[in-house]
Each structure stands twice: as C-alpha cells, then as structure tokens.
Amino acid sequence: MVSETFSGQVRENHMKAREQVRDSSDFNSWIDGSRYDTEKTFETIDPVIGEPITTIPRCHSREVDTAVDAAWRAFDEEWSETTPAERSQLLFDWIEVLRDHIDELSVIECIDTGKPISQARGEVEGAIGTLAYYASICQSQEGRQISTAEDLHLYTRKEPYGVVGQITPWNFPIWAAAWKLGPALGAGNTTVLKPSAEAPMTTIRIAELSEGIFPDGVVNVVTGTGSEVGGALTEHDRVRKISFTGSVSVGQKVMKAAAENVAPVTLELGGKSPFIVFPDADLEKAVNAVADGIFYSTGEICDAFSRTIVHESVHGEFVDRFIEKAESYTLGDPLDEETTMGPLTTESQYETVMEYIEAGESEGATLLTGGGTPDDTDLQNGWFVEPTVFDDVENDMRIAREEIFGPVQTINTFSSYDEAIELANDTEFGLAAGIATERTSIVHNAAADIEAGLIYVNEYGPILPEAPYGGFKASGIGKDLGTEVLDHYQQTKSVYVNLDDPEL
Ligand code: NAD
C-alpha cells in the first residue's frame, strides 16, 4: 500500500525539514568541547529524495590524534577525579537538555536514516532512557573486600580504562551512540566516538548539546569514513578499549587492529535470527512478532527475525496471514505519521537488498509478495523496497544464510522440535531468536537450546537498557546494555594491605 499523502509535496517537505535541521547546527565534528570543521567534507543523503541534507567534515588520523589527546587531557585533569555521583549528575543534566530537543532530534534521525518519524521518536526516547539508566546505576559502583588472613586487608577497586574508542553503525545512530556513551562515561572513561558516515547527524547533535555540561574533551565525535577514522581509532596506541557495533567483516578488522595494542574489544555484530512458530502458537501473535521483527526500520535491524521456521501443520495459515500483514504496510514519506515503512537508508543498501531478492528467485525460493519497488512515481527517487516474503526456502540458500539487512522474510518448515532447533542453530550467527508457542515447557526448552544472546517469546522487542544485549558465535563478543557493561568499561585492581599488629 502506498501512502496517499505521498505526492509532489514530499520533496518540499524534505527541503523544509532540511532547512530546519541546518538552522540548528552546522553538523561539524565535536572535539575538545568545540565544533571542528575540515576542508574536505562528505555529504549525508536524504534517502527519500536522494539529495544531500548537509556536508559533514571528513576527518583523518590527524583529527583522531587531536581527539585522543583531548580525551586524555580531560581524563587526567578532571574526569578521573569525579565521583560516580558527580558523573551521574552531569549525565542527568545532559539528559534534561536532550529531552528539550526530542522533536528536533527525531526529525534529524528521520531524514538522515529514512525511518518513519514515529520510530525515530521512539529511538530518540530510547536513547535518552538508556542514558538515564546509566546515570542512575553508575552511582552504585563498588569494589569488593575479600576475606583472607587476619593480617591482610585485601580489596578490589574498579577503575576506568581512560580513553575508549567507540564506533557505531547507521541503522540505529542515536540509540547506538547512547548504548556506548552512557556506560563508558558513567564508568569514568572519556571517549572518542565515530558514527557511521551514512547517518552521523544525531550523534553530532547530541555531542553539541553536551556543551558546557561535561568538561571539554570528555565526549568527542570524529566524523569520517570507516577506513580513515575508524581505522585510525582502532589502531591508536593510546586508545585503551574499543567498543564496536557493525558488520562481522569490519568487526574482524577491528579486533585485529586492537590486538596490536592488546586493547580489549566489545563487538556487536550482525545476525540472521530465526523465529520458530510451534504448532500450538497463537498465530496472530506470531504474525505480528515476525512482521515487527523484519519490517521495523525497513528490516535494517541487526536482530531482525529474518528466518521464519514454521511447523508444517500451521504453515498454510501462517503464510496467508503473514502475506496479508506484509501487504498492509504503508510505504511513504517517513515524515508523515501515517507511514509505517520508509526507504532503505543508503543506495548501496538498496542495491544489496535487490540483489538478494534476485538471488532468492534464482535459487528457487517462491516469492509470495513484494520483491520490487512501489509503482508510485513519487517514490522513485527514494530507496524503497516492498515488504518481501519468500517461501520454500532451504537453509543452504544465500537468502537464508547471509544477513540481507532489508525487509525480506524467508520461510521454511519443520516437523519435529529437534528439527526446528537444528534449523535455528544452523547459522554462523547467534544474535537473537524468537519463538511462538503457548506451552511453557517449549518456551524454556527452546530458550535453552537456541544458540543466541536474546530470546523473544511471542513478540519482537522491546530492547531495554536493563538487559544485557549481544550475540553468540559470529554475532559478537561482550555485551552492550545491562549492569555488566559497566564492568566492560572498567578494569579491576586487587589491593593487598599488610595489617601487621600495631606496635605503639
Ligand atoms: P559496518 O561494519 O559497515 O560499519 C560500522 C561502523 O564501522 C561504521 O561507523 C563504519 O564507518 C565503521 N568502519 C568501517 N570500516 C572500518 C574499519 N576498517 N575500521 C574501523 N571502523 C570501520 O556496518 P554498517 O553497515 O554501518 O551497519 C550494519 C551492520 O551493523 C549490520 O551487520 C548489523 O547487523 C550490525 N549491527 C549490529 C548491532 C548489534 O548490536 N549487534 C546493532 C546494529 C547494527
């Protein structure tokens, strides 16, 4: 279905939104508490109209050096002296400013990524909620006293690394930035963050909105390409920890680069998450969960439920209902509140998704719906792809094995519990999985048997800051979110104090 409000008016709406966001900021890098411009720039493109929104500084290793120096200065001179309560207060001060800019940040995220405005707003609020969580829990950091010989006082201290390097992708820019910044700052580190060149605007803007709150150099955002800025950051010998979110192939490069400096890494990588529909499932819940899990954010989601594995006894009914659901999405202008699916974020992602759709057809899967771009001529300048569903998918087909990162669902069937689990686990990835069933015994057995870091039962999402988030197998190392991520941004020191008998 194509939104009726999507007409010649759309370009005008986007031009207006572009002017509005450009009035708020020049979207420079943010280094040492100041805006930082470079001679060379790159453009960030509005995926609805295929035109630039603004230019962004194209930094290189020199700017990474400057930012790392600033971050160390800030750490040594001020940040390392702050108490958790002081850091908590500063995070809450920042959150208060961000709350005043929710509408502005939502529009920026919407036009930079193509996400429907309602989803962009939800992610801005999610980012603020994540920061608030770390502002709260960072106050309760503590070491441990270890009981041992009477003449010994033995205890542990948790200490920050100092300067950490953080790299984020383009699919959840502001949310991913908050996942990184909240715990790193709360744990007492200063940071140099590199957002994706494809959608860097909200990350720049939230850094600017920290002006006057954190000491200069505590938060640095260096913009540029992956190889020029990301490479320089991960290879930097004064960056003491790296946290990366992105693809497996780049994650491997990041890990190799960090190994040179023996810097610990957290890797949040891709996925090919299964969703198993058991024979007793409430099919309405199952259809909604799978649809949310593959069509939210046009399928550009790391934990997308991209492989649905349906029991043969309910396959026919599930497929009928799922096609109806897929065809009910409203493709249109993401600035319109009625739109439920926007374009893909980049032209190259559009090409990738279309190639996978062709591969699915040529490998013999049955295309049930979608597979193309909407007919409406008003959508032709945007990178729109219809919600697409393939049936009769074998697990060795490329569309079942590789991360597509688009609104493409694959469906295959199973006949026994063991077969379902085997199919679910037959993947290099292990980020997330879903199951639909009303039986408690299946819930807990499947949750234990599936190799994935997140299990959703009868739903897709939510993602809450309280719960650790991260993958098994090739989907990553370590976690974002939850209390344990504070540990990932700290190192433990054991202190032995000799308590000889006092002789006065
Ligand atoms: P990507 O790997 O291409 O890029 C991620 C980031 O790394 C970008 O900022 C990029 O500029 C940077 N980069 C590129 N080359 C680099 C290099 N040589 N050294 C250092 N940094 C480099 O990923 P993407 O296309 O931006 O994002 C999509 C991928 O991210 C998908 O695979 C998706 O599943 C994954 N992802 C994972 C999670 C998670 O939490 N597990 C969340 C969101 C996205």
TrEMBL record:
Belongs to the aldehyde dehydrogenase family. It comes from Natrinema salifodinae. InterPro entries: Ald_DH/histidinol_DH, Ald_DH_C, Ald_DH_CS_GLU, Ald_DH_N, Aldehyde_DH_dom. Signal peptide: none annotated. GO terms for molecular function: oxidoreductase activity, acting on the aldehyde or oxo group of donors, NAD or NADP as acceptor. This is Aldehyde dehydrogenase (NAD+). Keywords: Oxidoreductase. Homotetramer. Residues 39-495 form the Aldehyde dehydrogenase domain. The keyword Oxidoreductase applies. The active site is at 268.
